[in-house]
């Protein structure tokens, strides 16, 4: 196969394209790690998109109406780093202030894949200015892009007023064969077609190579036909080097106003490498010094030059983007000045991550009620109160809103559909994986999304939840039906190990409240998280609303764990600790123990991570080290409780899967009864010498 570079109409454009290729080759070779083949193949596509179409101001990479470029094929990160370098994108700090440095310098490229560099192996949002989302796990960027496109339409419906268009950005995505194979991309593409997201363009790199070899080993479908069935517009570009054909395809996308567009681009991975092109060897490893020289020779490049950026290339892409992007941003600023002052202030607050004054004023305080309500039900009331006060709080469930109680029901909330993009209720369908990733994309555009499903189905959502935490996105993940307490649906729907999984995600805030007022505090905590996601874990069954005149106030939730009932001034002989529905069980056991003269303390622990962040003095005041008698009660697996009960404490937890039965029989079978908690407490007090 001929790998001589196809001619591009302008020699300087060809020089810029080859600069992108050789920067990728040199960076991967120096690191002896990485993926050179896709940047070599797609440099003409990336360069043409950025130089001719991307509406982006390199001096203001946080401009809200910029076009978004998502490299879902995150292993091709050197293509993105090269584009950011040649475009002259400026670096912003964590407060979005310019640092005076480039987002990606040539020295940064030389430090590709090295410790503490700005050019990690896969693009990381927040680490490298200009990276719109963290990608690498295939399919995630594709699904994020659907959230970004939905966000644009939603923002446009609210802020495009009186002929002033403030939001009309497009979202461009480069995706590969792996993205097309991952189910999350298919889920997201299906929803994008349903939503008629005409501002969304996926560019599919059809290079037919994966790590194991040619994709015909496992992948033989007609991708374009599949996307046509999703109601996408499809275009086929036969040669990635044909920049004119690719430009015409992008123009077709821009002219399509009733559906998203898939551009299928046939490319040759490792283009220019005489011995490794069109092979798996070009995908995920350095070419080797000899092959690097041969590839550079094929490009007409000095064979011994490393990290070469010709002088005439340095301003080519930068000037093209500055001319287009600077003018567009200035016009946008003028339009913003014409916006209603109240809406303009709202938009500034949203962009800055602030919450409106008085956003929580309608959150109810729930009176004591022995019968109580399920925390999913009170959670829905609280969510609606929050959403009325925060116009950019929106979300939905994976076809479970009637069960999760997360439908926004106040006047004007509406459904977010193609014809009603201003709606606040999203209907994700049975697509949990895409739901999480789409929510991440919306959060990346300044909205505050929430999602909802049963806790057991958090398994389907783990990848986007992990990425939300990695990107420090304030997404709220609502999970209901949180234990064997859901009853007759049985072990397929009864979560056991899921709490440990959520708690194990770094930077994830996890709260399992015990009653309505703890749930209100949990929602407040979630909304105040500006740089981390939150999981709210809620019950299906009714839980008593505790009498806060008798027991400690629910405001203790803000510290993760607090003394709910105590034996002061006596020192406790035993501490009962629990989360969620098991807290009221511990209170019942506490009352019986107290009547027997056993000094007991009950600690509600809705959030382990919040509690662990408190100072040592507070933690010791809640769980005094001198009190070894401890019992933990939770309808979940045991993992993690040892650090609170110690090696000699007792854990009343789930050691197996659940069963299909009414809740009372399940609680008896698995030991979640007053009698069993009292027994364990007595034994703990006796073991540690506080009773004879």
The overall pLDDT, averaged over residues, is: 97
| Tally of helical segments | 25
Poorly predicted parts: 1-5
Number of strands: 22
Structural class: alpha/beta
Distance between the termini: 87 Å
Helical content, roughly? 25-40%
Going across the biggest sheet, name each strand in turn: 12-11-13-14-16-15
Q: Rounded to an integer, what's the Rg over CA atoms? A: 28 Å
Largest sheet properties: 6 strands, parallel
Coarse shape? elongated
Q: Percent of residues in beta strands?
A: 5-15%
Key features?
6-stranded parallel β-sheet; alpha/beta; 692 residues; 22 strands; 5-stranded parallel β-sheet; disordered N terminus
Could you characterize the architecture of this molecule?
- The protein is α/β, with parallel strands linked by helices and 692 residues long.
- Helices cover 39% and strands 14% of the residues.
- The protein contains 25 helices and 22 strands.
- A six-stranded parallel β-sheet has the order 12-11-13-14-16-15, with helices on both faces. Strands 1-4-5-9-8 form a five-stranded parallel β-sheet, with helices on both faces.
- Strand 6 and strand 7 form a beta hairpin.
- Helix 1 crosses helix 2, helix 2 packs across helix 9 and helix 7 crosses helix 16.
- The longest helix has 22 residues.
- It starts with 10 loop residues before the first helix and ends in a 5-residue tail after the last helix.
- The N terminus is likely disordered.
């Amino acid at each position: 196969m001929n790998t001589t570079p196809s001619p591009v109409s302008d020699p300087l454009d060809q020089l810029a394209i080859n600069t992108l290729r050789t920067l990728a080759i040199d960076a991967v070779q120096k690191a002896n790690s990485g993926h050179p083949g896709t940047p070599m193949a797609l440099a003409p596509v990336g360069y043409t998109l950025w130089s001719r179409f991307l509406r982006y101001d390199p001096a203001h990479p946080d401009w809200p109406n910029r076009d978004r470029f998502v490299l879902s094929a995150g292993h091709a990160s050197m293509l993105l780093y090269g584009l950011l370098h040649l475009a002259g994108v400026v670096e912003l700090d964590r407060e979005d202030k310019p640092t005076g440095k480039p987002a990606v310098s040539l020295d940064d490229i030389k430090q590709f894949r090295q410790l503490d560099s700005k050019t990690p192996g896969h693009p990381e949002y927040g680490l490298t200015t200009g990276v719109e989302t963290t990608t690498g796990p295939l399919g995630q960027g594709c699904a994020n892009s659907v959230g970004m496109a939905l966000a644009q339409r939603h923002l446009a419906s609210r802020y495009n007023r009186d002929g002033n268009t403030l939001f009309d950005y497009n979202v461009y995505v480069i995706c590969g064969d792996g993205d097309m194979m991952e189910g999350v991309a298919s889920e997201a593409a299906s929803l994008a077609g349903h939503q008629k997201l005409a501002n969304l363009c996926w560019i599919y790199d059809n290079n037919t190579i994966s790590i194991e070899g040619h994709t015909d080993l496992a992948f033989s479908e007609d991708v374009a036909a599949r996307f046509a069935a999703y109601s996408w517009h499809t275009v086929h570009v036969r040669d990635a080097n044909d920049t004119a054909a690719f430009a015409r395809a992008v123009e077709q996308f821009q002219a399509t106003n009733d559906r998203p567009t898939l551009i299928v681009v046939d490319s040759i991975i490792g283009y220019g490498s005489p011995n490794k092109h069109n092979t798996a060897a070009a995908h995920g490893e350095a070419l080797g010094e000899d092959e690097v020289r041969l590839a550079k020779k094929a490009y007409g490049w000095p064979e011994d030059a490393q990290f070469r950026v010709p002088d005439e290339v340095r301003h080519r892409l930068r000037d093209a983007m500055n001319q287009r992007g600077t003018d567009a941003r200035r016009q946008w600023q003028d339009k913003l000045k014409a916006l209603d002052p109240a809406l303009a202030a709202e938009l500034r607050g949203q962009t800055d991550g602030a919450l409106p004054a008085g956003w929580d004023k309608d959150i109810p305080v729930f009176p004591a009620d022995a019968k109580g309500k399920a925390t999913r039900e009170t959670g829905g009331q609280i969510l609606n109160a929050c959403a009325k006060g925060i116009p950019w709080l929106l979300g939905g469930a994976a076809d479970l809103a009637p069960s999760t109680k997360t439908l926004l029901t106040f006047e004007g909330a509406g459904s977010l559909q193609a014809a009603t993009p201003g709606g606040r209720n999203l209907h994700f369908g049975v697509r949990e994986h895409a739901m999480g990733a789409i929510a991440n994309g919306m959060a990346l555009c300044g909205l505050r999304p929430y999602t909802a499903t049963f806790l057991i189905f958090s398994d389907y959502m783990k990848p986007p939840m992990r990425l939300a935490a990695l990107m420090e996105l304030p997404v709220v993940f609502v999970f209901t039906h949180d234990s064997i307490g859901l009853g007759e649906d049985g072990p397929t729907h009864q979560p056991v190990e899921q709490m440990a999984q959520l708690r194990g995600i770094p930077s994830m805030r996890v709260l399992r409240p015990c009653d309505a007022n703890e749930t209100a505090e949990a929602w407040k905590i979630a909304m105040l998280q500006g740089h981390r996601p939150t999981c709210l874990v809620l019950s299906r069954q009714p839980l008593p609303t505790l009498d806060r005149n008798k027991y400690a106030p629910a405001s203790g939730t803000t510290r993760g764990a607090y003394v709910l009932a105590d034996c002061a001034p006596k020192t406790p002989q035993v501490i009962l600790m629990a989360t969620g529905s098991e807290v009221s069980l511990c209170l019942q056991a506490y009352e019986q123990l107290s009547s027997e003269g056993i000094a007991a303390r009950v600690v509600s622990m809705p959030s382990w991570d919040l509690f662990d962040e408190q100072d040592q003095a507070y933690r010791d005041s809640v769980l005094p080290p001198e009190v070894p008698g401890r019992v933990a009660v939770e309808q979940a697996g045991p993992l993690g409780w040892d650090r609170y009960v110690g090696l000699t404490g007792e854990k009343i937890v789930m050691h197996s899967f659940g069963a299909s039965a009414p809740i009372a029989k399940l609680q008896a079978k698995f030991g979640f009864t007053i009698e069993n908690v009292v027994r364990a407490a007595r034994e703990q007090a006796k073991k540690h010498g506080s009773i004879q």
